Amino acid sequence: MTYWRLSGFYFFYFASLGALIPYWSLYLQSLGFGAVEIGELTAVILATKIVAPNIWGWIADHTGRHMAVVRISSLFAAIMFTGVFIQQSYWWLVAVMVSFSFFWNAALPQFEVTTLNALGDETQGYSKIRLWGSIGFIITVVALGPLIEKTGADRLPLTVLLLLVGIWLSTLLVSEQAVDYPAIEREPIAGVLKKPAVISLLAICFLLQASHGPYYTFYSLYLTTNGYSETIVGQLWALGVVAEIVVFLRMHKWLPAFGPKKLLLVATGLTAIRW
């Protein structure tokens, strides 16, 4: 039962991602925004990732109530997103997306804490739970393509809102997992950031995210500009995530066998080849 309750959150969270990331740019284009404005409005969503997880993580760590943070942030993400229906001017959408994504980007990191705490020493089982996020993404992105092709992108905001409500409802099924941090002497952050392994990891994460920036923002526009239908766009987005599911199904065996460093090197190498 715990497996399905945890999986439900990932399903709805990444389903909302499957609606927002591939098709948000098409929706903004339908409102008459140009490439610069579309890039800025999409960047706003990603920019809050720098701030929101740190603030909400601090609150969760000092209260020990990670699921309470997830529930509150999920609820307010849905509430803030309703601002999209009020008006569609540029600065209004900037304000809506800042407020919405501030809460939306807070939910996943804290839910990860709950999931890993529930797994205990069986952390290799994480991939089997997380794969439901990929399934949710695929179902949403494939289903929305034909819908947008037939009716336009006007229904996208309502779809995203319903999925955000689904995220919040799924959090109500997951109980709080109290986390007891051992009393250890913590190293100052400045010392941690100077370690070569940490510098390398942060550089990898930065470059991976940077490489995905144009992909998340303009890939769908690029395809439609070159004559692809929204149905094909959805299928192409889903194709990469199908490969992700295969990885998640095998990760519980690969991780103990090869270790995280080798897997990271292979993954980044394949990513470079992919681009």
Characterization of the model:
With 275 residues, the protein is mostly helical. The protein has helices at 2-30, 35-63, 66-81, 90-119, 126-151, 156-171, 189-193, 196-225, 230-258, 260-274. Helix content is 82%, strand content 0%. Helix 1 crosses helix 8 (196-225) and helix 3 (66-81) runs antiparallel to helix 4 (90-119). The longest helix has 30 residues, at 90-119. It is globular. Residues 178-184 have low confidence and may be disordered.
Write the layout of secondary structure elements.
Elements: H1 2-30, H2 35-63, H3 66-81, H4 90-119, H5 126-151, H6 156-171, H7 189-193, H8 196-225, H9 230-258, H10 260-274
Give a short overview.
The protein is mainly α and 275 residues long. The protein has helices at 2-30, 35-63, 66-81, 90-119, 126-151, 156-171, 189-193, 196-225, 230-258, 260-274. Helices cover 82% and strands 0% of the residues.
Give me some keywords for this one.
single chain, 275 residues, mainly alpha, 10 helices, globular
SS element count, helices: 10
Shape: globular
Overall mean pLDDT stands at 88
Low-pLDDT runs? 178-184
Gyration radius over CA: 19 Å
Calculate the terminal CA-CA distance, rounded to whole Å: 40 Å
| H/E element sequence | HHHHHHHHHH
Sheet of most strands? none
Strand content: under 5%
Helix content: over 70%
According to DSSP, the number of beta strands is: 0
| Alpha-beta classification | mainly alpha
